[in-house]
Design brief:
Layout (H helix, E strand, L loop, with lengths): L6 E7 L2 H13 L5 E6 L5 H15 L4 E5 L5 H8 L7 E4 L3 H10 L7 H15 L3 H14 L1
Helix pairs in contact: 1-4, 2-3, 4-5
C-alpha cells in the first residue's frame, strides 16, 4: 500500500484517538500515514505539543490534518498553540464519519487538506440524526402508503 500524500494526526484525551484509528482500520483496512496521540493525566500539554511539533517538522504543516475531539480541550489547545509557528489544518469535534471521509478521499487526484477539512465537516453534519424522530418519520411514511 502506497503512503498517502496527506497525513492524518488524531489527538485526544485518553484512548479516543487510538480507538478511532483502530476502528477505521477495522472498517477500511490497514492505513498508512496516520497517527494517533493521546493526552494522559500524568502528561502536560507541553508534552503533547512537543510530539505534535515533531510531526510537523517531519511531515510539513501543509501535509497534515490534525483532528481533535473537543473544542477548547487540552489536545485542541496543544494543536492551536502550534499556529503561532505553523499554518496548520485542524478540525475539532472529530467523529468516525469525519475520519472515514478524510481517509477515503485523501488519495483522490486533486485532494487538498483544505478540501478534506470541508468534506469532513459536511460528513459530520450528515452523521447526526435523532434516530427516534427518524423512525417515527419512517413509520408515518409507511402509514401514508
Amino acid at each position: 500500500m502506497a503512503d498517502s500524500k496527506i497525513r492524518v494526526v488524531l489527538v485526544s484525551h485518553g484512548e479516543q484517538s487510538k480507538g478511532m484509528l483502530n476502528t477505521v482500520q477495522m472498517l477500511l483496512g490497514e492505513q498508512t500515514n496516520i497517527a494517533a496521540y493521546s493526552l494522559y493525566p500524568e502528561q502536560t500539554i507541553d508534552d503533547l505539543t512537543k510530539v505534535l511539533r515533531e510531526e510537523i517538522e517531519k511531515y510539513g504543516a501543509e501535509n497534515i490534518i490534525f483532528l481533535t475531539e473537543l473544542k477548547h480541550g487540552s489536545p485542541f489547545n496543544a494543536v492551536v498553540s502550534l499556529t503561532r509557528d505553523y499554518d496548520v489544518y485542524h478540525v475539532t469535534g472529530t467523529n468516525l464519519a469525519m475520519l472515514m471521509t478524510i481517509v477515503l478521499e485523501r488519495d483522490f487526484e486533486g485532494a487538498t487538506c483544505e478540501g478534506l477539512c470541508e468534506a469532513a465537516i459536511n460528513a459530520a453534519a450528515d452523521s447526526y440524526v435523532d434516530v427516534r424522530k427518524m423512525l417515527m418519520d419512517s413509520d408515518d411514511d409507511e402509514e401514508d402508503e
